[in-house]
Amino acid sequence: MAFAELKTNASLELKVINDSNIYYEKNDPQSSMITSFIPGLNFLAVNNQNKLALDYSADIMNYSYSPSTNNATNQTINALIDMTFPVGLSLKFRDTYKDTSDAPSSELVKRIKRTQNTIAGDVGYKINRLFSADIVLNQTKHDYSQAEYKPLYNRLESETGLIVFYGVSPKTSALLEYGSGKIAYDDENNLNDSTYSNIKLGLKGALTPKTVGIFKVGSQSRKYDFYTVNTSTDFSTIVLSLTSKTDFSKMTSLSLTINRDIQESVFLNNLYYLSTGLSAELNQKIGSSWATIVSARYEMGDYPNTTVAGVAKRADTNNVMGIAFQYSTMEWLSASIGFSSKSRSSNYTDLNYTDTVTNLGIKAIF
Fold it and tell me: I want to staple 318 with a disulfide (CB 3.0 to 4.6 A). Which of 117, 203, 293, 299 is the partner?
């Protein structure tokens, strides 16, 4: 297959960061200056509705405080195959690989070396002018490097599903989705293996005249393979997701993400917690060279089980707020400055923390 358009570029970004609480501690927070080198490579091939893409980026971080234990290199590789055939058949394949020390969840905020590989496949067929259907497959493998975390977190998450779309307008489709999945832990002594099923309704495409995105709401029923003493196991709950972008003008846009989903937990006798969150990012261009990005996230983490009789169930509130300014001196060169604040407030007060980060960066694209 010949591609009409081929694009390749390389980038290099340098950031100087001041982090007030690198370990997310409540008492005696430790600050550090961080120098971050971020190289990247991008490849894109396009032909009509077909697309091949491959992206690589790294984040090489050097800490002023205890560099022998804190210095780290994070890497991400993204691969995409997106093809549409004349008979109404489409094929999408994505592979996202991360080798990182970033905190994996709002519960586990430690910097832990780990890899995460997510493979997603989507086979679609356009039945007629109004109806289409997709078969979707997703698989994520979590591998932690440190021996103490391997039995707790190393696992394989797999899900398959069917989505049926009905065109309610030229730019909007209603959807019905059914999926089933399994979470299998590597360690045979970890009894948190589970299976689940989802059923959802939603909309995809133009949600309003200026907003495009996808909205889903439904329920998940989960069953644990093993009985764990003093723990509520099988359950059903409401889940929802919204990912949208509103273009108010060529200069102003707003991205929104809303979620209510289930996260794995190792907090005492809890197997999971419910994460309910709202994220917003406002992008405002100012003239031809300046841009401002204001972002915020609010998340509630609700745990199902008390730790001992009479003790309240754990409930967390996580907040993130940030603002950044970017100046493009030339098409290939830009500079940025940013500030963000992150905090957790819990009824288990020893888990509380506050962290502020300021950064100054410069980026070149070749």
Answer: 299
Residue 68, SS3?
Answer: helix
Distance of CA 38 to the CA centre of its chain: 20
Q: For the residues of 114-160, what is the DSSP string, one character each?
A: EEEEEEEEEEEEE-SSSEEEEEEEEEEEEEESSTTTHHHH-EEEEEE
Residue 230 has pLDDT above 50, yes or no: no
Residue 12 structural domain: 5-365
Tell me the C-alpha distance between 323 and 280, whole Å. 12
User: By C-alpha distance, which of 354, 326, 321 is closest to 340?
Assistant: 321
The total number of structural domains in the chain stands at 1
What are 74-88's pLDDT values in tens digits? 999 999 999 999 899
What is d(CA 357, CA 340) in angstroms, rounded to the nearest whole number? Answer: 5
Backbone angles phi, psi at 113, to 5 degrees: -70, 125
**Distance separating alpha carbons of residues 281 and 213, to the nearest angstrom:** 15
In the DSSP assignment, the letter for residue 67 is H
- The rounded distance, in Å, linking the Cα atoms of 279 and 164 is 28
Q: What is the CATH number of the domain that holds 175?
A: 2.40.160
